[in-house]
Design goal:
Layout lengths: L1 E3 L2 E4 L2 E2 H8 L3 E5 H14 L6 E5 L6 H9 L3 E4 L2 H9 L7 E3 L6 H10 L3 E4 L2 H14 L3 E6 L25 H11 L5 E7 L10 H17 L5 E3 L17 H14 L3 E4 L3 H4 L3 E12 L4 E5 L8 H5 L5 E3 L6 E9 L8 E9 L6 E5 L19 E6 L2 E6 L4 H4 L1
Parallel strand pairs: 4-19, 5-6, 5-12, 6-7, 7-8, 8-9, 9-10, 10-11, 11-12, 14-16
Antiparallel strand pairs: 1-2, 2-3, 4-13, 13-14, 13-18, 15-18, 16-17, 19-20
Amino acid sequence: MHYKKKKLFIEKVNSLKIVRKFGTPTYCYSLNKLKKNILDFQKNFKSLSPLVCFSVKSNCNLKILKEIKKCGVGADVVSKGEMIQALKAGILPKKIVFSGVGKKTEELKFAIKKKILLINAESESEVFEIERLAKLKKNPVNIGLRLNPNIDANTLKKISTGKHEDKFGLTEKTFLNILNKFKNSKFINIKCLSVHIGSQITDFKPYLKMINVLDKIIKKSKHTFDYVDLGGGIGIQYERKTKSFNYKRYNSAIKNFLGKHNVKIIFEPGRSIIANCAVLFSQIIYIKNTNKKRFVILDAAMNDLMRPALYGAYHRIIPLLKTNKKNDQMHDFVGPVCETTDKFLSVAGFQNLKEKEFVAISDVGAYGMSLSSNYNLRPKPLEIMVDNKSLKVILKRQKLLNII
């Protein structure tokens, strides 16, 4: 994404041409940025030879998953639907990990039938249910146990997953009890120690604490694991002031860990792969001035991009056509949905905007379209992929007739 003669380009395509042809709201992805992000992630951990499983919940578009599969990446799924989508994209079952705190029997049956690599269990009841289903099939099932390490990832409260007050994973006591109970089971193979401490983590230090906890519990358990699933959660620079993640320090800590434990590492990146590959194009419907601020009312809404309303998440907004004229008022970029929380950004000072002009909401590839809804009976947006100079629709705009 760059400006050329004051016009915003996605790769080599003028974004103004995209919005004039396809309308708004529209999600637009850069294929080359996606490929570069995957390659960079693989390079950062090349010496570890990990299994990289893309977090499908971050973006479940079939065409995107097919491109990810071409790069040799597997899938981390949290529902039967995501598993079906990953398989449809051509991702091999032996590269699929099934996570989540509340897997239904029907979903577990499907995972067992497809012989995926691992089901990461998060409660003792779930382990009993997997064993029961495995007995019926008369085939052992490989599982992981997800530990809750009680680590504060210093991220947004609503996307923290590794503290004791969070619903995810097992306490150390329960973890060790399950290992003891099922160590001689003919139908359960506990192959993996799994952990995930949160999302949008930009400081490597919580990961160092996490690795230390894993080291101690493996020694305490005296169990031989084939895999250690370190989850995902590595953040991106939504704001320019955010420090970039120190991959070198994290990689070094994992190497030290592997010097003590002979296991294969699994990663489950989502945001770090797909977030900064996409923008959400939107048109300004109205501009409303009050005594205190300027409301820029967009045709995109919280149903199209939920993160700011749900988490208070930050996304930069940029114009598709740059000018040198600035307006110093406080700007509130808001959507048309009948909720006060339908707001994307408050910023002091912005270039002078006019009604019917276009803007781009940045870094929306992760948890953008996948969290979208039909709230206020609004159709879901179009999705487009840019590859150099070419454009391809990867999901058609939903029509009202599809939902009414």
